[in-house]
Amino acid sequence: MTLTTTKHDLVEELTSTVERLYERHLGAAKAWLPHELIPWERAVEATPREPWTVEGSRLSFGVRSALVVNLLTEDNLPYYYETIHRVFAHDVWRVWARRWVAEEMRHAIVIRDYITVTHAVDLARLEAGRMQQVCGGAVPDPVTPADTLAYVALQELATRVAHRNTGTMLDDEAGYKVMARVAADENLHYLFYRDLVSAALDIDPSATMLAIERQVRTFEMPGTGIPDFTALAAAIADAGIYDVSLHHDQVLVPVVLRHWNVESIEGLSSEAEQARTRLVEYIARVDRVGQAMVRRRERRLADSVA
Hints:
Blueprint: H1 7-28, H2 42-46, H3 61-75, H4 77-87, H5 91-118, H6 123-136, H7 145-169, H8 173-203, H9 205-218, H10 229-238, H11 244-259, H12 270-305
């Protein structure tokens, strides 16, 4: 018989797992200082107080877009914290949430410092974007605790992929180290939430399967509210930093199909069985769409070279 849980039940049932995963996180997390990763000597060369021009940038629009979206997403942290704090109103959950916030704030600090000293993007537009993003306060608002956990697990893994790929495409050792360090933290956050979803599948497989299906089907990278987000996201995809194909290969397959192993979950209700069928079919469709987009991008690149 499938266990039916209320919001309070699931949060309560997962509390001991949160305690264990929090201790694991503290043991794995490495202390680091943002200022030690920043090439301060380049601030004079970049003259950040001077007006920014696209002609003076050595970065493509896609890479600049990724830096802006990565940073403004981190800047919107108060609203992500608000959602997590509201859904998981329990002592150890809040201890974790505060630690998570402290680490995410460090990401915003180091990315902003790197962008500032290298004058990588238009700093005036960046600040205007920050004001609009944070004043708007738009973030996903999952409907249940299981939805929240599933969404954040997917989001943290997607963010890790985007950060690391951005660092690689900066073609700058200092920038690579900044983004790799942030990506390493995001990976630990992903592991925390990933394993909570695994525990939730053990406690209430049907409700959790329904949540996973909802979150996979409606998933979007963070960025709602960022000025010109649609154009920025398109540029990020065109650059190969994060696109539908990467989302399938490096997020959906590793965590949903392999780690959560959704195709092998037993004891599902009929509704959850139907959700699983939709989920697997949707992931296959994402794969087809992603491959088609990659082929189109490769053709455009070949045509531009020709």
